[in-house]
Design brief:
By secondary structure, this protein is of the alpha+beta class. Helix content is about 15%, strand content about 25%. The radius of gyration is 16 Å and the shape is elongated.
Length: about 80
């Protein structure tokens, strides 16, 4: 009997500083929160949910994906932002 069970893994990229000079009084810099991508897979293929934002984050994500067994066959972006 073959298994069609799904598995998932989460990759978290570090937050990054913003270029916004409007910093709250108790902070020295403002930064984006850490971001995540989710890989949902079965034995033969994988779905990547929300690829990341910057080149450095994408390189880290690609390295992480290369360590997984199932190849990414689809990408799903849950939402977009008009400013980036």
């Amino acid at each position: 009997m073959t298994s069609n069970a799904l598995a998932y893994a989460v990759h978290i990229a570090d937050g990054m500083p913003t270029t916004n000079a409007d910093v709250p009084p108790d902070r020295s810099e403002r930064s984006w929160s850490p971001t995540s991508s989710i890989l949902i897979s079965n034995e033969g293929e994988a779905l990547l949910v929300d690829p990341l934002f910057t080149i450095a984050q994408s390189e880290g994500l690609l390295h992480w994906l290369s360590e997984r067994e199932a190849p990414v066959t689809s990408v799903y972006v849950t939402h977009g932002h008009g400013d980036h």
